Amino acid sequence: MDRRWLLVIFLFGCVFGATDASEGDADPLYRPHSGRTYYEYTCLWHIYGLLSMNAWFWGAIYHTRCFDLTEKLDHSSSVALIGFALILAVLRTFNVKTEASRVMIGAPLLAFLTTHILYLNFYKLDHELNMKVCVAMGIGQVLLWSVWAGVTRHPSRFKIWAVVIGGAMAIFLELYDFPPYKGYVDSHALWHATNIPLAYLWWSFVYEDVEFRTSAIMKKAR
């Protein structure tokens, strides 16, 4: 079997498994009837972390060993991450918890992502189209999280604002490319550099969201 098919099968097996995760999953911290406190989005964030590491790994490989296979792996991994992040943004900002609702939201987006990745790998590696798809999904996430941060009373909402503003500025570095300054730093390199503090802020928000939601569930249980 072609290695690109293995990548597609693995990525979307993980993603569909995450959207299908329900309150009956094996993790005792996730089950409401286990008598223990649980966080409703544990499995989703775990898959997001795996897809993030996968995208960073193939991005690093592609930037050091640029040929057809590594380029397609890098693009496919990035699209899978951004697409799943959009699904996760919808589920978290609208507080979707039931399995049926998650599948109804995730299935159309997964179908689109699968079609797009298959198109890139087996028909044409269209960089312009891929950029438009990624930017559209990125803007969708920014809008969802920014509106949510504006209406919620979440104690870490200011970190969301920082990530939203920083992410919006980072998108412009990808859209408006400029040549390397004195042969060293170009816009793409700066875009990668901005991901370091943004990733730290983002994962600190996730950690604090777990604490916040768990604390709220414990108060309701008393």
Automatic annotation (TrEMBL):
State one molecular function term (GO): hydrolase activity, acting on ester bonds
Q: What superkingdom heads the lineage?
A: Eukaryota
Q: Where in the cell is it found?
A: Golgi apparatus membrane
Question: What's the chief localization of this chain?
Answer: Golgi
Mode of membrane association: Multi-pass membrane protein
- Keywords of this entry: Golgi apparatus, GPI-anchor biosynthesis, Membrane, Signal, Transmembrane, Transmembrane helix
CC annotations in GO: endoplasmic reticulum membrane; Golgi membrane
InterPro entries the record matches: Per1-like
Asked if Transmembrane is a keyword of the record, the answer is: yes
UniProt family annotation: Belongs to the PGAP3 family.
Question: What is the role of this chain?
Answer: Involved in the lipid remodeling steps of GPI-anchor maturation.
Protein's recorded name: Post-GPI attachment to proteins factor 3
